Amino acid sequence: MEQLFQNYRDDERRIGEEYLSSLQDLNCNSKPLINMLTMLAEENINYAHIIVKVVEYYISQVNKTKAYLLKNKDTPAYTQLIDGRH
């Protein structure tokens, strides 16, 4: 994660670290946390490029099985995995 913010100013680094920390707390579908992340992004619209970088980084670190399930949620493979028929 150090490398993620190494070329940014202190204020950009602070925003990025704060957003990443909050994003890492999102481990289920929590409307209050999603709303808070949305408000944080809106409050820091001038740092949108940093927030996008954080989200891209976070997605790249997601467990590949979870990412597969989300990407393929409308396929028979998803249904089989969820139903335990894999």
From TrEMBL:
State the superkingdom: Eukaryota
Domain CID, by residue range, is 11-86
The molecular function terms of the Gene Ontology recorded here are:
mRNA binding; RNA binding; RNA polymerase II complex binding
Task: Report the InterPro entries cross-referenced here.
Answer: CID_dom, ENTH_VHS, PCF11-like
Q: Name the coiled-coil region(s).
A: none
A single GO BP? mRNA 3'-end processing
**PROSITE patterns, alphabetized:** CID
This protein is called MIP05908p
| The organism of origin for this protein | Drosophila melanogaster (Fruit fly)
The gene from which this protein is expressed is Pcf11
